Task: structure prediction
Amino acid sequence: MTTASAVEIQSRTLAGYADASRLRQVQDRDWVLDRVTGEPRTLIDLGSGIGQLLQEALERLPSLRLAVGLERSEHRIAEAAERLRSHGDRVALHPADLTAPEPLPYRAEVITQTSVLHWLYPDEHRVFAWAAEHLLPDGQFLLTTYHPARDAHGFGGEDDLVRDALVALGADRAEVPAVFERGGVLPIATRTRPVDGLTEALRPHLAVRGHLERDAVVTVEGPEQYEHFHAATFGDYYSRLVEPAQRPAFFRAVGESAWRRQQESGHVSHMPVRLWELTHR
Ligand SMILES: C[S@@+](CC[C@H](N)C(=O)[O-])C[C@H]1O[C@@H](n2cnc3c(N)ncnc32)[C@H](O)[C@@H]1O
Result:
C-alpha cells in the first residue's frame, strides 16, 4: 500500500486555500463588495468556501444582520465556521449542493457568487432560479465568471497545464483529450460557458443590469507554490486521471509546467473575469 503524500492529502481536503487563493480568487472579493449598494441586512454567498467574502462583508457592512454561506465541502464549512466564530449569530453556514439547491428561509438584498459557477456546469440554471427566488425585489446578485480561451478539444486555462503534466509523465499529447474522456473529467474551459451562453442561461431567471471585466493574471515564485495552488483550488479533480502511485509526480509536474510558463512569459496564466450585476427580471 502506498502512503498519500502531503499534497495528495491537501487535494482531498482542499486545504491551504487561504494561502493559495491570494494568487487569483481573493481579488474577486473586494471587486464584488465594492459594487454593493445601500445598506443590506442579509447577504448570501453561494459557494462560500472558507468564508473570506463573508468575513469581509461583515467587517465592511455594519448594516448586515445576517451573512449566509452555502458550501458543499465539509472541510471548508468547518474552516469558515472557525474564521467567522467571533461574529456569532450574524453568520449561518449551510451544507449545500448548488447543482440542486434546496430552498432556505432567507430573502437577501445581496447574493454573491465568486469563482464557483464552472463547477456547476451544466446545471447553472438551478442556481440562477434559486437566486431569483431568494433575492428581495430590489436586490443585487453579484456573480463572477472566468473565461479561459479554449482550443478545439475544449481545453484551456488549467487544462493546458494538466495536459503538459500528463505528457511529462509519459502520455502522448494527442491522446490527452481521450484520457480526460475515459476518466470522466470535463475540461474546465468547457465547464466555463462563454459570455453568450451564460447570457442565454441567465435570461429566464434574471436581468443583467451591467458588467465589469478584469484580467486575472497568475504569477508564482516557484513550482511548489503552484503545486499547492492547484491542489487547494482543483482538489483531486484532475489527479484522479493518473494511478495513485503517480499522483505525487503528477502534482509536481503541474507545478513544474506552471513554473516553465512563468519563466517563459512572466506569468503562468491570464484570463478575463466578468463581474455580472444581476437583478430581478
Ligand atoms: C474556487 S472555490 C471559490 C470559493 C470562494 N467563493 C472564493 O471566491 O474564494 C470554489 C468553491 O465552490 C465550492 N463548490 C464547488 N461545487 C459546489 C457545489 N456543487 N455546491 C456547493 N459548493 C460547491 C467548492 O467546494 C469551493 O469552495
Observations:
- The chain is about 40% helix and 20% strand.
- Residues 6-280 form a domain with the Rossmann fold fold (CATH 3.40.50.150).
